């Protein structure tokens, strides 16, 4: 299986490094032809509007949408979560959404850049790790087909921060900015068929 990271904007290099740390090679994806050469895609954190506009300008918006519909494995962190959501609150009207996850997210729902924080999280897998939240999206609703793998206690109550629906998963935090490989290992195991 061949992995790629959308490399239009954002912290794509950090995701590639995280995969490399696990012994997985990953290509930088900037064109439809490059997208067609991979089996699994990571959409990085960054600025969701900018990624959206660049994806439209390269034709990757329609190509990624079609790949998700066809069953490609996709993981999005932060901005990637926003783009994978079925409903985006506080986004631009022309912002793309791939609707790979039946979730409603609010852009910058945890606050602005100055409100960034780190928090220890416990997953439903029994693992503990620190999540880094930078202008993170807030998941306000999840559909019945969505598995919540980790939540954060907020003023709203338990708030999902790591979700998965079939072959698509997303985090509102940035695991690529830590040395903990739990999230990337989970995605690799999912792609390799070690997780059903």
Fraction in beta strands = 25-35%
Lateral arrangement of strands in the main beta sheet: 2-1-3-4-12-11-10
Low-pLDDT runs of 5+ residues are: none
The total of helices stands at 6
Structural class: alpha/beta
CATH topology: Rossmann fold
Question: Alpha-carbon distance between the termini?
Answer: 16 Å
Number of strands: 12
Q: For the CA atoms, what is the radius of gyration?
A: 15 Å
Number of domains: 1
Shape: globular
Largest sheet: 7 strands, mixed
Q: Which CATH class is shown?
A: Alpha Beta
**What string, H for helix and E for strand, traces the elements in order?**
EHEHEHHEHEEEEEEEEH
> What's the overall average pLDDT, rounded?
94
| Second CATH tier, the architecture | 3-Layer(aba) Sandwich
Secondary structure: helix percent: 25-40%
CATH H-level superfamily title: Class I glutamine amidotransferase (GATase) domain
Write a structural description:
- By secondary structure, the chain is of the alpha/beta class.
- It has one domain (3-191): Rossmann fold (3-Layer(aba) Sandwich), CATH 3.40.50.
- The protein has 6 helices and 12 strands.
- A 7-stranded mixed beta sheet has the order 2-1-3-4-12-11-10. Strands 5-6-9 form a 3-stranded mixed beta sheet. The protein has a two-stranded antiparallel sheet with strand order 7-8.
- The longest helix is centred in the first third of the chain and has 11 residues, at 48-58.
- It is globular, with a radius of gyration of 15 Å.
- The protein starts with a strand and ends in a 5-residue tail after the last helix.
- 43% of the residues are buried.
- The model has no long low-confidence stretch (mean pLDDT 94).
